Amino acid sequence: MHHPGPPRFLATGEQTELAPRDPDPDAAYAWRVADAPPDSEATVGDDAVTEFTPDVPGRYLIGLDAPDGDHLLTVRAFPASYEGVDVAGGSGTAIRDRDAGDVDAPRDYAARERHEGVGRPRVRVDASVAFDGEADGESEHAGEAVFTAVPSPNPESSLDADDLAVTFVVDDRDVADAVAAGRANPRDALQVSDDGRELRVPLDAVPDRLRVHAVSVARDPGEDPRVSVADAAAIERVDSSPSAIDDAAEGEAMLTPATPEFETVRLNDPPAWTADASVYEIFVRTFADAEEGEAFDAIAERIPRIAELGVDTLWLTPVLGHDGKPHGYNIVDFFDTADDLGDREEFEALVETAHDHGMRVLFDFVANHTARDHEWFQDAYKNPDSPFRDRYEWQESGEPGTYFDWELIANLNHANLDVRRFLLDVIDEWAPLVDGFRCDMAWAVPDSFWRELRDRVKDIDREFLLMDETIPYIPGFHEGMFDVHFDATLYFQLRQVGRGAEPAESVLDAVDQRAEIGFPDHAEFLQYIENHDETRYRVECGDAAAAAAGAAIMTLPGVPMVYAGQEIGQRGRRDAIAWDHAREEVRDRYERLLETRRDHPALGPDGDLARVGYHVASGDLSERPIVASGDVHPDDVVAFRRHDGEEDLLVVINFAPADASVAVDVGHGERDLVTDERCVVEDGEGTERIRVDEVAVVPVTEE
């Protein structure tokens, strides 16, 4: 239906885009402010895609008159500015508004995001079903849907969890469905606990699906209120036949014990398979030595060798018809593959080959722009009367909107319903073939489109992955949009360490920043040291640092990525891969790291990260007293713990070109899990130290 989607949580003065979903470009749509706080003067525009900005705190209802009826959308506004903490309170507006002439901006994106004051709190929402005495003991209903919010303060906050407030909002779409089905209005029937942490709705008011969204609100002394990224959970009615129960149990949704007619879903969790996923990026035009039109087949031939490396997810750079530029991001045909790569049938065969080898495939989805060679642009350029003119952004100069010095693309106008319809059709064309989208330039596309994309694919396949290229990353993009986020902050910090500009321990600061700027604990991050846009790490920082950085992305919490050629010591960024000159020792190292990560889930995204005390010396064990010297400096080494409740591991990483000996303030084993060799030695004073080349992973035995 055309309903604009989930409720919005905004700061006063923060703008949000409103758009009808699944639009008919020929239909009429009209917006209105149906209800607002008494002092509000906020309005909406007359266009089908418009903006709304709350001007005072409180609850707003925005109405949409659409061909399928009237829809209402709840907007909750809080007296919070977010200024300096998050980009436009969770949207990409500020990034999209960067100076198009700032050609250095793509390289500056990696700098650590600065924030002032205390950042945003976090919240987690879970759903369950309770019956009779399991509820409050006095319920008049046979059962209740229960939604529980667990707020947590920002790591830099002085507040405790008990100091945080929670605001729940029932999804307007489900309210309408319940009323249409003759059930009680869930909002009229709900009860919120005295502490504000729990919301209950009688089951007779639950339609086929009931979604509840919540935010936590922190009021640190002397600070504006800070509002978390919203989280959401759902309770869904399911077919209670045995076969349907078995099918549901195999998916991410959880059947509630003893209540097989209901299942619960956490709506913003990444797919379960990402907990141990590892990504391999293929720059499709130079990965394999292939003749014109045979690249898909050539890539498919190398799939077994890629699988042997130990990765399980392929990210393919764009495979669609393009303007001839080798990177492939200037699309001219969104519905067919590029002639220089192969035909549609060969692409599908490549995906099937990957699946046969236990690998998932990510499709590179470009939604911000077309190539200037696209037929729309060719008709619209310098032609004000073109029917395609309004499908692009235009500058006063008559040139199309674009970013930086990218002269061969033209930005699409996402306020145009024909553009939205077109992009949704592109999604429907390719999503059924693959396992996820890597969304190019996600920061340049309005939030409302990404929210619609998520609901569209997740309603069909909860395990479909959505990964954003949003640089710098934005916590709000985990609010009903993306599962996994590019971590350019960690990337940049690893480069700084490799250059000798920052101490190795600063990579832990980069990981900590995720929570400090407001990402929820269930968000996941893509960790990489190079990709098709960047100079190879070893070219810039040397072999020793490259080995350590590769180990860091495998042992820090996140989803590691290997860029094709990285595993064999490739030096060229987009050059043909020098398979005949592979450095097998580099590949062996990555195989061991990936195997270690698979065998020890504590190293994955779900494992906790903790700092430890450690002392670094050079590899000379005869030193008295032990001091850093020669090719090893204390700043070259970082040590940390990873634990998941089942296993507790100590990781030591050395960026220096020589071995280091590291004493750590916790008891630990003697064998490195990566090499299966003894790595503990004694120095001249009899102190046990871990001898580490690039990385050592050992079990923790005691405090």
TrEMBL record:
<dbReference type="InterPro" id="IPR006047">
    <property type="entry name" value="GH13_cat_dom"/>
</dbReference>
<dbReference type="InterPro" id="IPR017853">
    <property type="entry name" value="GH"/>
</dbReference>
<feature type="domain" description="Glycosyl hydrolase family 13 catalytic">
    <location>
        <begin position="281"/>
        <end position="597"/>
    </location>
</feature>
<feature type="region of interest" description="Disordered">
    <location>
        <begin position="1"/>
        <end position="25"/>
    </location>
</feature>
<dbReference type="GO" id="GO:0009313">
    <property type="term" value="P:oligosaccharide catabolic process"/>
</dbReference>
<protein>
    <submittedName>
        <fullName>Alpha-amylase</fullName>
    </submittedName>
</protein>
<dbReference type="InterPro" id="IPR053556">
    <property type="entry name" value="GH13_alpha-amylase"/>
</dbReference>
<dbReference type="Pfam" id="PF00128">
    <property type="entry name" value="Alpha-amylase"/>
</dbReference>
<dbReference type="GO" id="GO:0004556">
    <property type="term" value="F:alpha-amylase activity"/>
</dbReference>
